[in-house]
Amino acid sequence: MKILILTEASQKKGLGHVIRCMSVYNEAVANNIDVTLIVNSDSCIKSFINVQNGVVQNWLLNESVFRNIIKNYDCVVIDSYDISDSFCNILSETCKIPVFIDYIQKRVYFRGIVVDASVEPLKYNYSQNKKVKYLKGFDFVLLRDEFKPINRRVIKENITDILISLGGTDVRNLTPFIIDILKSEGVNLKIMCNENFKNVIDFNDYKNIQLIYNPTPKIIKKNMLESDIAISSAGQTLNELAVCQTPTIMIGVADNQHWNINLFKRQGFLFAGWWNDETLKNNIISCYNYYKAQKNRAIVINSIKSMIDGFGAARLIKEILTWSDSEKY
């Protein structure tokens, strides 16, 4: 069995697709599967890909390049919202086990495994198509090994530590805005970012601010658990915050985050608004004041603590291996 994983990342898109794919990559390695990861990316990914068979390459360049890349693999996993219907059809027609990771139900697929970890109503009906295996719901949230089941044992009386996670580069330049809102609260602010973080602010002018550059999954988990609440964009990071049971204030920074926002609102996370909303400042203050009450944070933690178990990647690899043993096609 040889698996190829194709995904994308950029300063604008962030690292959510790659993070999901890294979980699949690591699970494949754990099962002694020959696996390669190719990322269509800019410079934001250079310090992030540290796996043996990790490559930065524009696999979306043209159809001939795409065909040439996928031809030597038994299974191809694609996590990309940029991929065209034409490329999807090529994969479905030529690959033994095509796998599409699509949390926003972007298109209908006619053959392969489709992974949709959202709980949004089905947009397409696959019930009559035996050539599609549709894997849906929290059981298929793809998280890295470090985010296996966790139990948050302590809920402090007061908020002392806040984690800010806005996609590593913070393309909407929200960090100075949020710091200005919270600077008088006397809390510790921990800001997760990468080397492309370019916010114009002199952090030396503020006390109790820590920049955490290029954190490993272990460091990310540690800081999530040590923080009383988080302020986060509404991408893949919300899944990790849910596993760590960190009450979160969500800010929408990309159009494809609508479903994530709706999902986690139902689970108890608070939504402050979109990055360009005129009421964003007041909404953040309102959310923060709500979380000041220990009982309110406890309610959210109780709601999300069993939402995701962290074994989604293991379940997907099992489905791939089972599919490879079938003789349907």
Give your account of this protein's structure.
The chain is of the alpha/beta class. The two termini are 16 Å apart. The protein contains 10 helices and 13 strands. The strands form 2 sheets. The protein has a 7-stranded parallel beta sheet with strand order 3-2-1-4-5-6-7, covered by helices on one side. A 6-stranded parallel beta sheet has the order 10-9-8-11-12-13, sandwiched between helices. The protein folds into 2 domains: 2-143 and 310-325, Rossmann fold, CATH 3.40.50.11190; 147-304, Glycogen Phosphorylase B (Rossmann fold), CATH 3.40.50.2000. The mean pLDDT is 89.
The number of helical runs is 10
| Fold-level CATH name of the largest domain | Rossmann fold
Strand order of the biggest β-sheet: 3-2-1-4-5-6-7
Radius of gyration: 20 Å
Give the total of domains: 2
Q: Architecture of the largest domain in CATH?
A: 3-Layer(aba) Sandwich
How far is the first residue's CA from the last residue's CA?
A: 16 Å
Principal-axes shape call:
globular
Residue ranges: pLDDT <50 for 5 or more in a row? none
